[in-house]
Amino acid sequence: MAAMDDDLLFMPAARVAARIASGGLSAIEHVSAVLDAAEASQTGLNAFVTIDRAGALAAAREADRMVADGAPLGPLHGVAVSVKDMVAVKGLPNTNGSFTCEHDIPDADAPAIARLRAAGAIIVGKTTTPEFGHKGLTDSLLSGITRNPWNPERTPGGSSGGASAAVAAGLAPLGVGTDGAGSIRGPSATTGIVGLKPTRGFIAHPAKADPFGSQGFVGPMARTVSDTALMADVMAGPDTRDPWSLGRGDAAIMPGLAGNDLCGLSILYAEKMANPEVAPDVVANTRACLDVFEKLGARITPLPDGFDWIEEAGRVLYQSSIHHQVAGLLPAWEGKLTPSFVRFAEWGARFGVADVWDAIAARGDLYNRVQGLFSGHHILVSPTTARTALDADFDATAQVVINGRECGITRQSWTAYQYPFNLTGNPALSVPSGFGEDGLPTGLQLIGPWWSDRALLRLAGVLEAHRPWAHKRPDRTNRGLG
User: Which of 159, 188, 226, 321 is catalytic?
Assistant: First the structure.
């Protein structure tokens, strides 16, 4: 693959769409480059479970015909997008990383996918996920191990690890992820891209089991803030299948966020949440980002110690739901389920009905306390992960070691900053904060009041202007394009 093709692969989505609309680039040229790179990378990265070459090229030809005919074009016309294999795409298998869903083929697009298509986006394939998105690493018995394009020995995070690996490696500028416990933000931080878990209801995401109590979200992943914002605007909107999307509130108003002036903006900083340790290089990069905000006029206040992030109650909710799910799959699928998925279910079996209802009450208390944080501050900031990427084959049931200390399983240690905001519904955005001592990316998490999604993206844009990251690319060999 020539160097000029590499530049094409890393072209921002907004620029791709503009060039296609002006005739300076054909959709066929763009989509073909993405498909070729995606297929070539599979042996090394394994970011895709399905690559839809025929469908994507047919859509690209139609996109070029529309340009030639002078037809109205959407903001993402001709732009390649990958979709996590837990989001329905009409006509493509939706495996959820599981043999139990290997032959499930949706007959309709999910709401967010329908909106992307209406904006002109072209779906190139489905990206890998651990079984039913149950953990913060991406491997499954169905599709194998997915690897980090910055270092193939490390994980791209999970459960949207295929999406994060694809975006970071230039395999489509945009990726659709889901986030049930940090699954957009963790992978984004781990691979050096931008990922938004939106406010509950900002982007419609139907949940069959419990549409009112769902902790799952669908959201955009991209290499730049502007592409993430564009994608979020396209995906946003109500849908009757998601009751939360029908009562959208007013956008949160925040001072500053105009140019380089952040005067009047109050930022609360949490260096730790439920995690006992955080790596020094993560702290250094986080504080470097805070220094940018402070120099532009923002006021930074450390979060006092002792705030309860309900790690134990959150674990009750998470693992008991997995127990319920796995119980419905056994014994028919014995030996075909990922061992960590089964182990999580065994842990969840210890919890009774009273434990679950106590955890639901704790979730309500957490919601109120988190909203209270925003009565005196506009933004909450933390690291996205407590250290850089774990090994690609790390056992999700094992202890994570940080600063030489065993700190609990991933949700208690590495990804402890993420799940609280699935529980409360607040928008949370991960942006690159720098690189660790091992050369792998680290992330900064921005959390705001409900409906402050666009304000978070504007603040991230300020940071990106002062600490740019999108020009940095993983080595071609690590991306499987050697």
Answer: 159
CB of 12 within 8 A of CB of 226?
yes
Distance from C-alpha of 44 to C-alpha of 442, rounded to nearest angstrom: 22
Residue among 32, 84, 140, 452 flagged as catalytic:
84
Say whether 159 is catalytic.
yes
Say how many domains are in the chain: 1
Task: Pick the catalytic residue from 183, 245, 382, 433.
Answer: 183
Q: How far is CA 9 from CA 16, 30, 67, 103, 322, in A?
A: 10, 8, 21, 31, 38
Across the chain, which has 482 residues, the per-10-residue mean pLDDT values are 73 98 98 98 97 98 98 98 98 97 96 98 98 97 97 98 98 98 98 97 85 86 98 94 79 70 95 97 98 97 95 96 95 96 97 96 96 95 98 98 98 98 97 98 97 95 96 94 82
Catalytic annotation present for 126: no
Q: What domain range is 48 assigned to?
A: 3-466
> Residue 77 sits in a domain of what CATH number?
3.90.1300.10
Does 106 reside within a domain? yes
Query: Catalytic: 295?
Result: no
